[in-house]
Amino acid sequence: MSGPRDWSPGGGRRRGAVRRILPVMLVFAVVVGGTVYLRGDLQNLLGTAPGSARSAVATHSFHSESGPVGGRCEGLPEELDADADATLTALARCLDRMWEAVLEPAGVDYEEPAEVRLVGSPEEAACGTEDFDWAGIYCGGEAVVNVLVEGGPDDGSGDGSDDGSDDGSGDGEVFPVMFTLAHEYAHHVQAIVGISAQDGSEVFDEAWSRRLELQADCLAAAALRDVQPYLLNDLRRSLAHGTETDATEEDAAEQRASHGSSRSGALWMLRGQREGTVGACNTWKAPEGEVS
Ligand SMILES: [Zn+2]
What we know:
Strand content: under 5%
Bound molecules: zinc ion
Number of strands: 3
């Protein structure tokens, strides 16, 4: 009930004050609550989630202001397979020079990884991770690049005691390891420019991980496009046809979920190889179907 008889000076004033403030508070609560609750949807609506051209990572200056990626690798041995260690060490130096030049126009000071470890077994990696199912791994905290070199890091170098099976035949055996090295270097670059540190503001999940990994594949292909174009073609094609895997079904599914399918990997490698730019490797604005 309400009407003239309910009116009293004090109560009326109080009710009036509540009546004025309450709607404002309600609207405020709905806006704040709604923003928190619908954050992901709002990001989609406003176009700031990964997968949108307007997301913070997609518009990062790394993609628009970096210099071209690629170039020949001076100092790389003629026979790539003769001494895997020497080849990978020379490639690491090339990648340092390359990324320093690429990042300069974007105003980013490149820093070399603290260490490049050519390990004979995953247990020797610097990260101390329990995950031993990898060909290469980048330890973000320590800035250490680890690459698994089959047969041990000393295989084929120095006295060359037991390298009867791969004595520099030059059939590109070491090239997949070179690609892994370039991929881990790309993770190092992503860390330097701050892309892999976006997990504070963006949702960190498997979809996010796939964009990060496929970008690293693309950047690795761009980095090696002039170094060994034919071997890069072979590797990309074998990936596209899914002939490279001997993993269990479960491992393969996990790999697909966090790194993207082989088909997606091949697609992004092709883009990096063709274009040779960081912008061509902007997986962050790609539709979901290209990073699945
Ligand atoms: Zn990776």
